[in-house]
Amino acid sequence: MWTLTQIELFKIFRRPRTYIAFAAITGLIGIIQFGLKLDGDSYIDFMMRDITSSITVEGKILNGYQVCYIVLQILLVHVPLLIALVAADMISGEANMGTLRIMLTKPISRTKFLLAKFMATVAYTLLLLVWLAILALFLNMIIFGTDDLFLMKSQYVVLLKKDDIFWRYVWAFGFAALAMTTVASLGFLFSLFAENSIGPIVATMSVIIFFTILSTLNIPVFNKIKPFLFTTHMIGWKEFFDIKVNDANEAIIGSIQNPQKIINSALVLVLHIIGFVTAAIVIFKRKDVLS
Amino acid sequence: MRKIILILITCHLSLVTFSQDMNALVMKVKAKLDQVNDYEADGRMKTDVAFIKAPIGKVKVFYKKPNKFRLKKDGGISLLPKGGVSVNMNSIFSITDFVALAAGEAVIGGTKTKIVKLLPSNENSDIVLATMYIDEANLLVKKAVTTTKENGTYEIEMSYGQFMQYGLPDKVVFGFNTKDYKLPKGITLEFDDNEKKISEAEKLKNKKGRVEITYTNYIINKGINDSVFK
Amino acid sequence: MQTIVAVKGLTKQFKNLSAVQDLSFSVNEGDVYGFLGQNGAGKSTTIRMLLTLITPSAGEVEIFGKKLTSNRNEILSQVGAVIEKPDVYKYLSAYENLQLFARLSGVKVSEEKLMAQLDKVGLAHRAKDTVKTFSQGMKQRLGIAIALVHDPKLIILDEPTNGLDPQGIADIRNLILHLSRDLKKTVIVSSHLLSEIEQVATRVLIIDKGKKIVEGNALELFDPSQTIVELQTFDNGYALQQLQVSAWNIHLQPQRDTAILIKLDRQLIPQLHRDLVDMDIQVLSLQPRHSLEDYFLQVTSGNQYVDTYSN
To answer: Does ipTM top 0.90?
Structure first.
């Protein structure tokens, strides 16, 4: 199994397509960093125009933690598309190339073959997130320094102490890994149904875009189905940046406002992953390879 | 008719005498505060606004005569009422030209106080009206409600301890009005349903914000460089 | 002689297409088993069923005396295959491809051995080049190297000469002969071209529309002194009955609806003629076929190519 996964990883990282996602992330973060470094204060002013009518926020708002949050907020909506690029190609790409039939005449059970491919996809996803963490968190911590994190939510604002942030990012990236793995498993499932990679990639992206729009729309009819969409739960990482307050309205350092919500979201995502992968195995085992 | 005139005259006279009394009281308080040329203090600041979730932060407060005041957070970010926190009486008393009017008595924090309305005569003063609740026995301002031209009305409540003889409080509660806060979810990229937020939304209706500073240590009249206030 | 592949009643029904119907055949150790049929006859479907790429609708496959369904991995570790186009990872080098598939086959092969394998198919000098730069023939040779890298007992080549130039075709032919004669491998090779099979196969199976037409020893099937005669009568059923009880029974071939096929020495044709008259069979036509190619085309397609090839 490990050998198989190694082979799959070797294949992934020998393909130029793999690096598109890394390059895209690097480019996007670079642009955001450049923009914020150059004109970040006016961006912050713009962001804060609602609150500054009654509150003055003093201090270094635009620090590395803030920039990382901005980057994650923007990128984690789009990274799924980059993951789909590889995940949705895992089987369909091989079918298209014609290598799938050779692979499947080798003495490896289809389940193992599929799981190894999935593990490799997950490894790719994780590496992409590690890269994202290096650029968005560590690099920004160096470029912009670290300080308290001031976040504006739709109903309230949150101020996190400098020493109370890093661990939240560690968990947030962990959660993001789970969310992105869900996307990967969806793309992976779709990749079974086609003999070219465009179809599954577009299908995965479409589902994510469609669901995300449904999740974003604040229309009562859609609100009922929102909890059942995995995209609603994919932004659960943000919950790590919400803090509890005591009766005196003091933020309790080291606390999370709604840990249960994170656990629920994580469970929903895990169930989706299990569901998608199981479906993929069941379908793949019966599939006639005609490519 | 004569009676009425008489009453009016009496009233006027008593008002004047009252005013003079109040002036004297205010001057006494001012004199007490005038002992302090400058101070530097460490404090713990709590921002209590319904829509703000912030931890307690450490602050440093600097004051220098006549009206230089600066609140600094030990690094980090601080959330303060717009227009700054004028949490010291010294600034208010820097007004030199004023009319003080008596407006009755009240009990603040278990202490009987005299209510004094302070009206600056100078039209350029930012302060339009300051209402003080003065503990006559100790010459301490227990509470002040200040209406300003620029930053609305705010309220300061003070409790005293160790540094009572300088008129410097141990704890200051600064109350101010806040506006509504709400951002569209499209901007904050939140997908949440609203149901759970009702209780918090209730809280938001309370538009009074408070900043609470508890001082732990004062350094008085040791001289402060002006650069601190820049 | 040991039976390497035994197929019984193999059937594959796609939604509305019956690709393979009740196919039975067996391949013995050391055979070069030719698998002949027009495009779409069901060769590839059958081969894919042998390799577990397609699940049969019915029937059973035994390879090396074991059931394929329950011993898949054990069996496949002893099988090497090239299925249609020899597709490999284009972004990897020839060497990397070979190494990768060797590992997947569960064998650890040293670098020298891998290079020797590439040398055998004439690709040693291009070992480090990515496959994208290879010609069709080179890819085919790499495909074969991959099929052989784990030293399998059974080698399955599905249309190995597709898209190759004459030299490439000749190379494949020589390779098959080498595998069989020198290395004593069992080879199953499919083609829609009789000429290719004719030159290498020891046994032949001809299928059409998913059904077996004929299976037999290549020497017998391809014997040039033998002729196939196509007999059409007023009542083919009666004629067949009569022939089956006569001495001609041994010459009868699997029957088709419109004609009775009889395989015999050319010299016996006049005798057959006389006997048919004696048996009171009303003959509409008695047509000898001139070559196996002709026969093959006749039985398998029965239509478009016949005119071109028959005299």
So the answer is: no
- Per residue in A202-244, pLDDT (tens digit) is 999 999 989 888 887 777 887 788 888 888 888 889 889 988 8
Q: Any CB–CB contact under 8 A between A154 and chain B? A: yes
**Residue to substitute from C83, C107, C140, interface A, most A β-carbons within 10 A:** C83
State the nearest Cα–Cα gap between A29 and chain B, in angstroms.
19
Q: In which band, very low, low, confident or very high, does the pLDDT at B5 lie, cut at 50, 70 and 90?
A: low
CB within 8 Å: C55 and A286: yes
The answer to whether the Cβ–Cβ distance between A160 and B55 falls below 8 Å is yes
Residues of A in contact with B208 (CB under 8 A): none
The domain locations on chain C are 3-216, 225-290
> Are C55 and A288 within 8 A, CB to CB?
yes
List, in order of start, the domains of chain B with CATH numbers: 2-229 (2.50.20)
Q: Would you place residue C307 in the very low, low, confident or very high pLDDT band (cuts 50, 70, 90)? A: very low
Q: How far is CA C84 from the centre of its chain?
A: 13
Mean pLDDT value of segment A106-118: 92
Whole-number Cα distances in Å, B44 to A183, B71, B73, B217, C78: 46, 11, 9, 10, 78
What one-letter code names the amino acid at A6? Q
- Give residue limits of the domains in chain A: 2-286
Chain C residues closer than 8 Å to A3 by CB: 103
Q: How far apart are the CA of A216 and the nearest CA of chain C, in angstroms?
A: 41
Distances, alpha carbon B188 to alpha carbons A61, A64, B153, in Å: 17, 19, 31
| Range of lowest pLDDT (A25-29, B123-127, B136-140) | B123-127
Of residues B46, B55, B82, nearest to A55 (C-beta): B82
pLDDT for B217 beyond 50: yes
Looking at residue A26, its pLDDT comes to 93
CATH superfamily of C3-216: P-loop containing nucleotide triphosphate hydrolases (3.40.50.300)
Residue A139 vs residue B201, higher pLDDT: A139
Note whether A touches B: 3 CB pairs or more under 8 A.
yes
Q: Domain C225-290, what architecture?
A: 2-Layer Sandwich (3.30)
Contact yes or no for C72 and A102 at CB 8 A: no
Query: How many Cα atoms are found within 13 Å in the side-chain-facing hemisphere of A55?
Result: 30
State which residue of chain A sits closest to C46, comparing Cα positions.
Answer: A290
